[in-house]
TrEMBL record:
<feature type="domain" description="Response regulatory">
    <location>
        <begin position="4"/>
        <end position="121"/>
    </location>
</feature>
<feature type="modified residue" description="4-aspartylphosphate">
    <location>
        <position position="53"/>
    </location>
</feature>
<dbReference type="InterPro" id="IPR050595">
    <property type="entry name" value="Bact_response_regulator"/>
</dbReference>
<dbReference type="Pfam" id="PF00072">
    <property type="entry name" value="Response_reg"/>
</dbReference>
<protein>
    <submittedName>
        <fullName>Response regulator transcription factor</fullName>
    </submittedName>
</protein>
<dbReference type="InterPro" id="IPR001789">
    <property type="entry name" value="Sig_transdc_resp-reg_receiver"/>
</dbReference>
<keyword id="KW-0597">Phosphoprotein</keyword>
<dbReference type="InterPro" id="IPR011006">
    <property type="entry name" value="CheY-like_superfamily"/>
</dbReference>
Length: 128
């Protein structure tokens, strides 16, 4: 299982909470505070799972980052979990259209986050 996790979240407090939650069992956690940097880090790190905020400043929001990943054959299989306060059905559908593997609405439980990451990281290992 690829234990590299990339957290792409613009709010430092939320990013810290996510990183603290995932800092266990040998996971290697990396951070980006915007979509542009996050996309570059996905290409460089090849993480086992990307935890991606939807609403971020800069050129790329979370949906756009997800679309770019799915369009790039080298990184298209990277599991992506959207993390967002936008929990309307239309938002969930937009996340699916962008290509995310899962969608967690803030606030989410740390246990739910851990279970989602472990499931996706394990399934990604079998797909690659």
């Amino acid at each position: 299982m690829n234990k590299i996790i990339l957290v792409i979240e613009d709010q430092p407090e939320i990013r810290k909470l996510i990183c603290m939650t995932m800092d266990y069992d040998g996971f290697e956690v990396h951070e980006a505070d915007n979509g542009d940097t996050g996309l570059k880090m996905i290409k460089a790190l090849r993480p086992g799972v990307v935890l991606l905020d939807v609403m971020m400043p800069g050129q790329l929001d979370g949906f756009q980052v997800c679309q770019h990943v799915r369009a790039d054959a080298e990184i298209a299989a990277t599991p992506i979990v959207m993390l967002t306060a936008r929990g309307q059905q239309t938002d969930l559908e937009e996340g699916r259209r962008a290509g995310c593997d899962d969608y967690l609405t803030k606030p989410f439980s740390p246990l739910q986050l851990i279970e989602t990451v472990e499931r996706l990281a394990s399934s990604a290992t079998r797909r690659r």
